[in-house]
């Protein structure tokens, strides 16, 4: 949120406390959190924040309570009817994980048609937005307009507008493999022995991340975690194996399959979609087979 | 036994022994065991032909017999696995040639053709055959020595002996490496008769010994691919020790102490590895072999500087998996193979999680998963969620792999493919039968003419009866047949891994 840009350290501290207590904080809470603050400093800081419109002020049981404002709550509340407020609150509570329309309906008890209207309304005011959920394409969730969707919703680095970027993943997969392969041969006949050779053929996710970053093929910043995800696809591809070093780092090494392609896939039948329909007599037979013809041609 | 196996067996019998034997063999395959009159009845063949076929089949160990319940009549039974070995003959020859040289190859080849015969007969026949062949320079002494070495190494063994009952049963006997009297044999060649030689010990090829070699070879090659030649050599030495100390196909060998292994390394005389490196870093190699060698080898104890065990069963499983990965990759693409391996790693996994880990677009991922399901590479297990979750409850589907079943369907596929290549070869031969026949005749004639020393001009005339278009067709046909039989050999290797896996109870 924009408030974190505030470079005044005192305000920042106060804001942090406020963020942790969405129900609101009192003067006492602030002093507990920022003990080095004098009363005057406190007042001026609070005033500044109030001026910036970051806080709501309440009177609760005789003491003043400051509550952090959602940035847009002003607009939403302005000119909104009760339904809109209810819906807005539900959506706000859901945070950046969003909330499903069905859950809004169940919790708010607003009839379907009206709810749709309310949501449309809020959407057109750019108070909320609908976000497609990556792991269930039909499912849309609502969240506040200014929120960045959570990874579980947006899918993180691999998604562009909720579309999975498989080409990007493929390229990364290939590049990671190349990197591992460059050092894979170190284990072979290494003059320092195979244990050293093996260590030299290993690459950690951090090294791979650096390599990928240096290549400059990605315009999104890839976290180590993301690189691990890609490296794991290589493991599932059977092109790499992972081990854990004594110090706990996970490392990867490119490997080859134990055997060259076996007999079955060297003949057309091994890859033939009709293999189960192919009989001694009838329409599909080995005698007349076109695949066999082509294969025997060369 | 599967229908597909039946089709393959039938084609093989046709190729090697012709139509009649095929009919008898197929009949036995379908009905299991039965006596001669029943075979006559179902095949509709004359009794004499059935008996002749059975004689051939029994000779090559493709059919066995046992007394039926009335004691004097025999029931016959086909051994389909042995029929499949017929395709493997070229590999046996290659193997023995690599290990013991070309004399050994000639001996084994002759023995395979004879199915079983006495040592004297074998040596005399081979010696007589190559008497005039100055290039090969085959002597009786050499042959005898080779015979003794391959018998000692158990590549050939004594054939079982029949007892004296009405329907004899065959009793296996322990192989004793014989003394062979060369002078007597030389005499036999000179007089062209074996009558004076009293030798009633019959020999046959010990296929299982060859199969152990094939297995060792696969394992050594796999380790070489994974680590390097030196590790491969170490694997080889471990397997050698296993041969000496353990049952042939033990799921786990008896442990080999590191000290013994070190001796073996010092003695080893292989050229394709860097012995100094292996000697210097043997402990390191053992460690890497254990940790990165696909689980072929494990350390089991510390006695004698550490003890290592070869795990045949695990190796077979790993190799089967590698074969499966290749098959899935070729049939459905590398992305499907990724899903396949993912499911295998996770044991049981939900559809959503597949997509997450495999990093594939939702739609593609689903499609591939369903394709895998359709081709029986993976299975699905529905799981009801507890009723308490109310209206929202829906069944969860977990994907997983039933390895045994998948191996079975892979084997079926191999059988199908093998059948198809055999069938295709047979079809090609039949389609060009006339031409192939003509070529054979021309060759024989030319050969005799050469031997008789007739003028080149005449020989050319005969050769020219094959016209250029005919020659080019022949060349084409030969190339195709060669390709098909290479494919059959490759399929057989594939089946070898599968059968090795099935050897252990799962
Ligand atoms: S013979 Fe042809 S149609 Fe039949 S399985 Fe093989 S490739 Fe497919």
TrEMBL record, chain A:
It is found in: Nucleus. Gene3D superfamilies: Winged helix-like DNA-binding domain superfamily/Winged helix DNA-binding domain. Its main location: nucleus. Signal peptide: none annotated. InterPro entries: RNA_pol_Rpc34, RNA_pol_Rpc34-like, WH-like_DNA-bd_sf, WH_DNA-bd_sf. One of its GO terms (cellular component) is cytoplasm. GO terms for biological process: transcription by RNA polymerase III. Keywords: DNA-directed RNA polymerase, Nucleus, Transcription. DNA-dependent RNA polymerase catalyzes the transcription of DNA into RNA using the four ribonucleoside triphosphates as substrates. Specific peripheric component of RNA polymerase III which synthesizes small RNAs, such as 5S rRNA and tRNAs. Belongs to the eukaryotic RPC34/RPC39 RNA polymerase subunit family. This is DNA-directed RNA polymerase III subunit RPC6.
From TrEMBL, chain B:
InterPro entries: POLR3C_WHD (IPR055207), RNA_pol_III_RPC82-rel_HTH (IPR013197), RNA_pol_III_Rpc82_C (IPR008806), RPC3 (IPR039748), WH-like_DNA-bd_sf (IPR036388). Residues 8-65 form the RNA polymerase III subunit RPC82-related helix-turn-helix domain. Keywords: DNA-directed RNA polymerase, Nucleus, Transcription. One of its GO terms (biological process) is DNA-templated transcription. Residues 325-401 form the DNA-directed RNA polymerase III subunit RPC3 winged-helix domain. DNA-dependent RNA polymerase catalyzes the transcription of DNA into RNA using the four ribonucleoside triphosphates as substrates. Specific core component of RNA polymerase III which synthesizes small RNAs, such as 5S rRNA and tRNAs. Belongs to the eukaryotic RPC3/POLR3C RNA polymerase subunit family. This is DNA-directed RNA polymerase III subunit RPC3. It comes from Papilio xuthus (Asian swallowtail butterfly).
């Amino acid at each position: 949120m924009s408030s974190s840009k505030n470079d005044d350290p005192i305000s920042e501290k106060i804001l942090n406390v406020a963020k942790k207590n969405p129900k609101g904080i009192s003067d006492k809470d602030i002093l507990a959190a920022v003990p080095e603050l004098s009363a005057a400093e406190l007042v001026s800081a609070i005033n500044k924040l109030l001026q910036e419109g970051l806080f709501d002020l309440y009177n609760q049981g005789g003491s003043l309570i400051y509550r952090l404002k959602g940035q847009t709550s002003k607009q939403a509340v302005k000119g909104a009817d009760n339904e809109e407020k209810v819906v807005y609150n539900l959506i706000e509570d859901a945070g950046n994980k969003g909330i499903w329309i069905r859950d809004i309906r169940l919790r708010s008890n607003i009839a379907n048609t009206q709810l749709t209207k309310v949501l449309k309304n809020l959407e057109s005011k750019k108070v909320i937005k609908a976000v497609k959920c990556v792991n269930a394409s039909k499912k849309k969730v609502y969240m506040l307009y200014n929120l960045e969707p959570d990874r579980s919703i947006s899918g993180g680095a691999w998604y562009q507008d909720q579309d999975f970027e498989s080409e990007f993943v493929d390229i990364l997969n290939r590049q990671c493999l190349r990197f591992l392969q460059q050092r894979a041969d170190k284990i072979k006949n290494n003059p320092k022995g195979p244990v050293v050779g093996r260590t030299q053929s290993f690459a950690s996710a951090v090294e791979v991340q650096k390599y990928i970053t240096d290549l400059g093929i990605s315009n999104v910043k890839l976290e180590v975690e993301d690189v691990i995800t890609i490296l794991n696809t290589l493991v599932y591809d059977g092109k790499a194996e992972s081990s854990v070093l004594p110090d706990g780092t996970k490392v990867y090494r490119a490997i080859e399959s134990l055997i060259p392609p076996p007999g079955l896939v060297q003949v057309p039948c091994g890859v033939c979609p009709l293999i189960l329909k192919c009989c001694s007599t009838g329409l599909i037979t080995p005698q007349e087979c076109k695949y066999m013809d082509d294969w025997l041609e060369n | 036994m599967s229908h597909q196996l039946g089709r393959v067996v039938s084609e093989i019998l046709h190729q090697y022994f012709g139509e009649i034997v095929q009919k008898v063999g197929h009949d036995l395959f379908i009905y299991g065991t039965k006596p001669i009159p029943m075979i006559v009845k179902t095949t509709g063949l004359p009794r004499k032909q059935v008996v002749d076929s059975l004689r051939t089949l029994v000779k090559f160990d493709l059919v066995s017999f046992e007394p039926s319940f009335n004691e004097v009549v025999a029931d016959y039974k086909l051994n389909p696995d042995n029929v499949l070995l017929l395709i493997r003959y070229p590999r046996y020859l290659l193997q023995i040639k690599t290990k013991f040289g070309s004399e050994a190859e000639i001996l084994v080849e002759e023995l395979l053709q004879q199915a079983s015969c006495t040592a004297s007969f074998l040596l005399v026949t081979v010696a007589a055959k190559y008497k005039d062949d100055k290039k090969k320079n085959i002597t009786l002494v050499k042959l005898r020595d080779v015979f003794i070495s391959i018998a000692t190494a158990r590549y050939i063994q004594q054939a079982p002996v029949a007892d004296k009952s009405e329907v004899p049963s065959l009793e296996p006997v322990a192989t004793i490496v014989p003394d062979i009297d060369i002078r007597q044999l030389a005499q036999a060649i000179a007089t062209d008769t074996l009558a004076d030689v009293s030798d009633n010990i019959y020999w046959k090829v010990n296929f299982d010994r060859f199969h152990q070699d094939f297995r060792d070879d696969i394992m050594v090659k796999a380790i070489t691919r994974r680590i390097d030649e030196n590790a491969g050599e170490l694997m080889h030495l471990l397997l050698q020790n296993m041969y000496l100390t353990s049952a042939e196909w033990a799921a786990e060998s008896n442990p080999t102490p590191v000290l013994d292994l070190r001796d073996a390394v010092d003695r080893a005389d292989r050229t394709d590895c860097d012995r100094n490196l292996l000697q210097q870093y043997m402990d390191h190699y053992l460690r890497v072999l254990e940790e990165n060698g696909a689980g072929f080898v494990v350390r089991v104890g510390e006695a004698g500087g550490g003890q290592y065990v070869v795990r045949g069963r695990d190796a077979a499983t790993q190799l089967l998996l590698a074969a499966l990965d290749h098959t899935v990759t070729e049939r459905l693409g590398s992305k499907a193979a990724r899903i396949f391996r993912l499911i295998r790693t996770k044991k049981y996994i939900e559809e959503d999680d597949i997509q997450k880990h495999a990093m594939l677009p939702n739609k593609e991922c689903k499609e591939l998963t369903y394709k895998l399901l359709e081709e029986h590479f993976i299975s699905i297990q529905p799981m009801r969620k507890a009723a308490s979750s109310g209206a929202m409850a829906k069944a969860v589907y977990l994907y997983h792999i039933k390895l045994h079943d998948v191996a079975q369907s892979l084997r079926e596929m191999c059988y199908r493919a093998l059948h198809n290549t055999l069938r295709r070869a047979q079809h090609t031969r039949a389609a060009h039968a006339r031409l192939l026949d003509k070529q054979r005749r021309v060759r024989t004639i030319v050969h005799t003419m050469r031997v008789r020393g007739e003028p080149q001009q005449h020989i050319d005339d005969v050769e020219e009866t094959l016209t250029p278009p005919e020659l080019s067709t022949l060349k084409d046909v030969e190339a195709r047949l060669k390709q098909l039989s290479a494919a059959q050999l490759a399929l057989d290797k594939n089946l070898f891994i599968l059968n090795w896996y099935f050897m252990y109870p799962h």
